[in-house]
Amino acid sequence: MPRLHPLLSYAFYLGLPAGLAFSAMALGLAAWLQPAGTVVDLHARMAESGGWSPASLTVRVGEPVTFRLTADDTAHAFAIGQLDGTRVDLPLGERRDLTVTFDRPGKYVFYCALWCSPNHWRMRGTIEVTGPGLPAAGEPPLYVRLGLDLDAPRPTPALPAARPSAARGAAQPLDLPAAYLGQAYYRAASPAAAWQALRQEPAAQALDDQQVWDLVAWLWSRNAPTAEARTLYAENCAACHGESGAGDGQWAAALAQQDHAAQAEFGAHTEAPTDFTDLGRMLATSPAILQGKLLRGGMGTGMPYWGPIFTEAQTWALTDYLWTFVFAE
Length: 329
Ligand code: HEC
Ligand SMILES: [Cu+2]
Known about the structure:
This protein is of the alpha+beta class and 329 residues long. It has helices spanning 18-26, 142-145, 166-170, 183-188, 191-200, 209-220, 227-236, 238-241, 252-256, 260-266, 279-282, 287-296, 312-322, and strands at 3-5, 38-44, 56-60, 65-71, 76-80, 88-90, 96-101, 106-112, 124-130.
């Protein structure tokens, strides 16, 4: 983890009279207010108005870089993907400083962390960190390791008569074979595939179809949603996918009918945000596919890519959380 020094030069902004600040400088007392290392003036504007400027930066490993951040058109927030503690709120017109020292090379993404327009998520920029050392080496995401095609159509499976319930599933007095209980199984299988496999199990022969669906709901709900996942969803996803996951967030309509200017500027056709309560769709989908979409984005559909923004643990926490929209309690 890089060392972070949020040295906010508040003195100038917390009502210290300009004259006083100026005389302090004249006395040479302002030296300690001067940030060390590289200084980057970074301006935030809505994506429609050009986004961050500059939008790409190069800095050196081990050298403190001070971002002098100003929001020019409306309130924004600055944050660097995958680095906790880098979020800075940017009220309109007030400068905020953040000093960061990167301790390994690689490509980082900085982004706006406050909803500012339907194209808010496009407010992103890159920081190329060069110098000695090796970039953080993660393994490829699960969908790549499983060889999954995120865009392949997923045929709608035979649907349960009622929305499967985790609580009813938990109440089944049944010893499930251990193979179904591991995280690896859950992440790679769709609920429909799990239902089909369980349906064949001798241990489940006494159950009816709905009871087996309830078991699947229980299996898929064992990673209880974390408080962090709820917050991440509310802050980053609800605007499109809706608070209850039904694809009806405040920006959903705007996405479905992106004006032509935005189409021309950003390309591609946008789609309506996925309705996570849609059983036909979700029962055919594995956590690996959901996480893959989250990491890679929709490539032009309007679904942003979050790979460089969230840590791997955060992407799984969000993926687990999405099942709360699918299954009944
Ligand atoms: C700007 C609007 C927008 C935001 C914000 C957004 N999404 Fe999406 N999302 C979409 C759209 C549109 C689709 C459907 C098109 C597609 O799948 O590419 C989608 C699809 C998805 C899918 C694929 C579902 C499937 O069955 O293939 C997942 C998973 C997903 N979003 C999760 C999230 C999560 C989690 C967040 C928050 C971190 C999020 N989305 C934020 C617009 C958005
Ligand atoms: Cu924004």
